[in-house]
Specification:
- The complex is a heterodimer.
- Chain A contains 4 helices and 2 strands.
- Chain A is mainly α.
- Chain A folds into 2 domains: 1-38; 41-142, Cytochrome c-like domain (Cytochrome Bc1 Complex, Chain D, domain 2, Orthogonal Bundle).
- Chain A has a two-stranded antiparallel ribbon.
- In chain A, strand 1 and strand 2 (70-71) form a beta hairpin.
- By secondary structure, chain B is an all-alpha fold.
- Chain B has a domain at 1-160.
- In chain B, 75% of the residues lie in helices and 0% in strands.
- The mean pLDDT of chain B is 97.
- The chains are: A mainly alpha, B mainly alpha.
- At the A-B interface, helix 1, helix 2, strand 1 and strand 2 of A face helix 2, helix 4, helix 7, helix 8 and helix 9 of B.
- Chain A: InterPro entries: Cyt_c-like_dom (IPR009056), Cyt_c-like_dom_sf (IPR036909).
């Protein structure tokens, strides 16, 4: 770097550039928030959906699965699992997991959910499935 | 050691290395669970092992950052640390909190842990990387604030260099953006939106300031190049980092319910994110080539060059591979992401901590550099771990490409688990590369215990 470009110039560009792009990021985030109500289907978030989200969290589902592509990559995407297996298919699968696993294979743990809890989980997953996420995933397999 | 209080860095470094070992052991368990699905099931299910693996990574990197900062700031500020005692109290607080958290993950089901630790008061758990129970999260805030108070007071009473200022901005940013981990709205789109304000703005934002500052410090010390030159480079690098990385957050806003314009903002700005990493590599090589002295610590210089190159490959190149929205549409949430994550974290953050430890630890142990035998072992460990991570990344990339093809692109897309079984060969190869990594890590630790008697005494 030539002598004309001094350290204090570099410092000023750092502070100025960072401030500018952070403010731009805030502006974009602000605009996103004004658009989200049309996309995130918040009007459909019932106490049951909220309960489902809580169950999703306190059982650390994201530790194996992805949801809208985010999470771990050990088990299938669940953002569209309702479209793949339907309400009853999802509940039946969760209920039927063997306690001691399946020899040699990956298996979901048996969580012993009540029927109400299963309904809440399905309500949450249904809600996620209804979010306008730019048509992701590419197909039904997730 | 120029200042007595720099010695507080030592326990931080030792804890960092210890937790690093734990992280790698759990990594091997996870790798095995990918191919032997019922390994350790149901005692340690995959999600628990993964939580331990990723949380140990975060915690050991934080220990490394704190140790590095405690070592560096007194020397940069040319004054003793404001309170060495506070630094030691916070060390034990953080270590005990961290250990209890890991024990909690392993000892009781996660739902029980959530129940026991007050998740009902404020629901913050169960989100990737932010799985820590509420008391641990609060503990992290307390430790971070105490740490920042200590450092800020030290800088205020001493000399204010560009290197310390950049470090302080990075560390304050780390603390501030962690606060978003307490915000967990019931609306999952908002939840995900702000989750990235912690996760992305950490690793592709403020952490890079910490990285740049550590690298600049070690380069000044080992090459003797003029501070003015190095600090100018540092400003340029962190500028490039933040002007690309902040809007680059948009590459996480493609498919989570956020507006489509993020596909443009995210693609363009994150495509520029490799530039600061490239600049870092050029910087490191340039400074070493222009060195005015031969520092006896060859291993530290090797780590400094290595972190530039591997951060560029892992974060820069492997990030770019899948960051453009039309590509990411197919690769999002596959083994491609895992491949990128492994090389990026190792190259940028594991290696920069190992560089700092490599430079500072001999001095903390009363010598300018380790003896020849020790340095040779350390360099062996560098090459073993680095080669292993390159192969882990290549195998996961191969697995990812096949997964994308089988599950998302081919005419007859296969279900997830069917595709997984077809690519198992690559998971096996990844696991063997992981074993090499562990051997490298054992060699690394061994390097601390050999050749301590033949002391290098060069200035």
């Amino acid at each position: 770097m030539s002598g004309a470009f001094t350290k204090s110039m570099a410092r000023n560009i750092f502070y100025g550039g960072t401030t500018f792009f952070f403010l731009l990021f805030l502006a974009l985030s602000f605009d996103t928030h004004s658009q989200l109500p049309k996309r995130d289907m918040r009007q459909n978030i019932t106490p049951q959906v909220a309960e489902g989200k809580k169950l999703w969290e306190v059982n650390n589902c994201i530790g194996c699965h992805t949801l809208m592509g985010e999470g771990a990559y050990f088990a299938p995407e669940l953002g569209n699992v309702i479209a793949r297996y339907g309400d009853e298919g999802v509940k039946g699968f969760i209920k039927s997991r063997p306690k001691e696993g399946i020899p040699g294979r990956r298996s979901m743990p048996q969580f012993n959910f009540t029927d109400e809890q299963l309904d809440a989980i399905v309500a949450f997953l249904k809600h996620v499935n209804s979010i306008n996420d730019a048509n992701w995933p590419p197909n039904n397999q997730g | 050691m120029q200042f007595k209080s720099q010695a507080v860095a030592k326990p931080y470094f030792i804890a960092a290395i210890g937790l690093f070992v734990g992280q790698i052991l759990f990594g091997l368990i996870l790798g095995l669970q990918y191919v032997i699905g019922d390994f350790l099931f149901p005692a340690i299910p995959f999600n628990v092992a993964r939580m331990v693996h990723t949380n140990l990574l975060i915690v050991w990197l934080l220990f490394g950052f704190m140790g590095g900062a405690y070592y560096m700031i007194p020397e940069e500020s040319e004054t003793e640390l404001f309170s060495p005692k506070l630094a030691l109290i916070l060390f034990w607080t953080f270590l005990v909190a961290g250990a209890l958290t890991i024990v909690g993950y392993l000892a009781v089901p996660y739902a029980t842990l959530a129940e026991l630790t007050g998740n009902n008061i404020l629901e913050t758990m169960g989100r990737e990387f932010l799985e820590q129970p509420l008391p641990t999260k609060l503990g992290i805030v307390v430790v971070a604030l105490g740490f920042l108070f200590n450092l800020t007071m030290t800088v205020l009473k001493g000399k204010k260099t560009a290197i310390s200022l950049v470090l302080l901005i990075g560390l304050w940013g780390l603390a501030v953006f962690f606060l978003f981990s307490f915000y967990n709205p019931v609306n999952v789109v908002l939840d995900k939106f702000f989750w990235w304000w912690t996760v992305h703005l950490w690793v592709e934002g403020v952490w890079e300031l910490i990285l740049g500052s550590f690298l600049a410090f070690v380069l000044i010390k080992t090459t003797g190049v003029d501070r003015e030159v190095i600090e100018k480079w540092l400003y340029v690098i962190v500028t490039l980092t933040l002007i690309t990385g902040i809007i680059g957050t948009g590459h996480h806003y493609f498919w989570i319910g956020t507006p489509e314009y993020w596909q443009w903002w995210g693609s363009i700005f994150s495509a520029l994110e490799p530039i600061p990493f490239f600049a870092m590599t050029v910087f490191a090589f340039n400074m070493v080539n222009r060195r005015r002295r031969e520092h006896p610590n060859k291993a530290a210089v090797l780590w400094a060059l290595g972190t530039g190159v591997m951060a560029f490959l892992g974060a820069g190149v492997w990030g770019f591979l899948h960051t453009l929205a039309p590509v990411n549409y197919y690769t999002h949430g596959t083994q491609i992401t895992a491949a990128h994550g492994h090389m990026a974290f190792y190259g940028a953050y594991a290696m920069v901590n190992l560089m700092m430890i490599s430079y500072a630890m001999p001095i903390l142990r009363g010598r300018a550099a380790n003896g020849n035998k020790s340095q040779v072992l350390e360099m062996w460990s560098f090459w073993l771990m680095t080669t292993a991570i390159v192969f882990i990344t290549l195998f996961l990339t191969a697995a990812g490409i096949l997964q994308v093809w089988l599950q998302r692109v081919s005419d007859a897309p296969l279900p997830f688990m069917v595709a997984q079984e077809k690519i198992a060969l690559f998971y096996w190869m990844r696991e063997w590369a992981g074993v090499i990594f562990l051997i490298g890590l054992i060699v690394y630790i061994a390097s601390f215990f050999v050749g301590g008697d033949e002391r290098e005494t060069a200035k």
